Amino acid sequence: MRLTTLALALSLLFAPAASAFEGRIAALAAPNTPWDQSWIDFKDYIRQHGPDIEFDYFIRGELGNEDEMLSALRRNRVQIMGSSLQGLASLVPELTVAMAPYLFSSPEEVDFVYDNYLFEPATALLAEKGLALLRWNEVGWTDFYSNTPVRVPTDAAGLKIRGAPNVSAQVFLLGIGANSVPIGSVDLVPALQRGLVQGGTSNLIFHYYMTRQYATHVTLTHHSYDTGGTVAYKAWWDGATAKQRAVILEAFGPSDDDRNAVRALSSEILQLLRDDGVVVIEPTPDERARWIAKTEPLVAKIVDQVGGQAESFYKAILDGKRDFAAREAASDAASKTRPLGADRG
Known about the structure:
single chain; 5-stranded mixed beta sheet; 11 strands
């Protein structure tokens, strides 16, 4: 009996340590931005709560642009990646439908539709490409920037404009009469410097950090909303234990925290652009109506060009928008019938 006990003790003592769950994380987060801070917080949480999880972090573009990072992810050379929807749409074209012009009216509507109606279909579409969708990321409104003033669509006619290499971006630019130039983000600044393009479309934060010196006019078209996603190599993700997956998901923190941080920074960036001499053009209601009228027919064209499951993905968006509108109407009606002072303690 004693020999058996001693043998068991020795086997436990000299047994090889359980191997850590390892991976590489890639992103394109500019320093001192909410995306950068989010990854820093993620890293701290993993260090504290995931002793059997070990990640190498390449979160500031060390592994190249989004196309290069996605390629590495699909070959399991990277295991987790933070991507814009623009990037993911190059792999899953159906996702570009969510960036069709003037599809959403407010960030609140975006959050509701993405969280309640798009997560499951997007998860299924990405799984077909060998990826697992872990969460949505906040990117924000897409606006129009150029080196000449653009107030209405006709002002953009003939301009050479960089558009992301996805169907929605390209159809939008062609629809307003611009000459679309689909180049990668890493080639954008040299293209602006050499006059190969005269502007582009992006969120304000990207424009402030990357292109404001070369395109001194910003038009707040708010023509589409980019909600990116954090994705993982699915086979690797499926190999994690349930506890490891839970720790990793918890490490990201509440989505609303990231959304609020990015939206707050976008408001600050707007003023910083003005302070830096960038001309910020806010379309009047009539001018905005002209943007909407010009691009409204493009949505059906985008769905048709994408093909695949684009129609059902678009239907999910419309279902979500109707549900959101009904809830907003019910909330407004309830507030109107609530007795004066009912909300006071």
